[in-house]
Amino acid sequence: MRIPFVAGNWKMNTTATEAEKLVIEMLDKLDRIEGVEKVLCPPFVSLVALNMMLQGSSIKLGAQNMYFETEGAYTGEISPLMLSELCEFVILGHSERRWYFGETDEIVNKKVKAALSNKLKPILCVGERLEENEADKTEEVINRQVSAALNVIEPVSNLVIAYEPVWAIGTGKAASGKQAAATIQFIRDVLAKLWNKNIAQDLRILYGGSVTSANVAEFISLPEIDGALVGGASLKAEEFVNIVKQTAEIKGRIK
């Protein structure tokens, strides 16, 4: 059975001091929730401090991005080698990286390869834009993104995929549970063809896009959806704890 997974993507929010304060507010409550893999993804500047704060807890750490080279003359970039000492996960292919910073499917593929080579677990984001959704091109876009990101990569189990429709990110307009579940099942079908049915069935696939404590149950209650990649709501301690707790309760693993 796939272990539920909830990650908080803090994006470009929180100073180092604010990040520590936020972790202090949620640490004990999050740590007591069992049966859910819990990951916090703060800005790079807070990874060292939070790595120390989370030692001995059940909460894991992730980065929001990385470059695909391990070292070199790439001013301002962070390498997988640097991250591997600090965190376990790394978000790759987020729509904000694709659309704001011009990351292509080929670049995402290089980053996934580099992460896996350096013992980092990718949280691979895929999702369509509003115009693509309205033109019934969701499956075409998802198929291209998943296939390209995993091109020439052997089947792996230490990968998480997040379906995040671009039109739902930060807009307050979430997809419906039914719509998200159908797209996530399509992702499994793509994985089955790309790799094999067993891997496709074992990999965890999340929903992301305006997830809150008020709507998370609509997604988590569906068997196709294994958890959530949470944006703005993860910056509020009680809200994020509530999302994780609901996930544990609905998936039947809370004690």
CATH structural class:
Alpha Beta
Q: What do we call the CATH homologous superfamily? A: Aldolase class I
Q: How many runs of DSSP E, i.e. beta strands?
A: 8
Assembly form of the protein: single chain
Average pLDDT metric: 96
SSE string: EHEHEHEHHEHHEHHEHEH
Rg (C-alpha, Å): 17 Å
CATH architectural group:
Alpha-Beta Barrel
Low-confidence stretches: none
Structural class: alpha/beta
Share of residues in helices: 40-55%
- Overall, the morphology is globular
Strand order of the largest sheet: 1-2-3-4-5-6-7-8
Total number of helical segments? Answer: 11
Describe the structure in brief.
With 255 residues, this protein is of the alpha/beta class. The chain is 42% helix and 15% strand.
How would you describe this protein?
By secondary structure, the protein is of the alpha/beta class. Helix 1 (16-32) links the parallel strand 1 and strand 2. The longest helix is centred in the last third of the chain and has 18 residues, at 177-194. The model has no long low-confidence stretch (mean pLDDT 96). Helix 1 (16-32) packs parallel to helix 11 (237-250), helix 5 crosses helix 7 (138-149) and helix 7 packs across helix 8 (177-194). Helix content is 42%, strand content 15%. It starts with a strand and ends in a 5-residue tail after the last helix. The protein has helices at 16-32, 47-53, 80-83, 95-101, 105-117, 130-134, 138-149, 177-194, 197-202, 216-220, 237-250, and strands at residues 5-9, 37-41, 59-63, 89-92, 121-126, 160-163, 204-208, 227-230. The protein has a single domain (5-250), classed as Aldolase class I (TIM Barrel). An 8-stranded parallel β-barrel has the order 1-2-3-4-5-6-7-8, surrounded by 6 helices. It contains 11 helices and 8 strands.
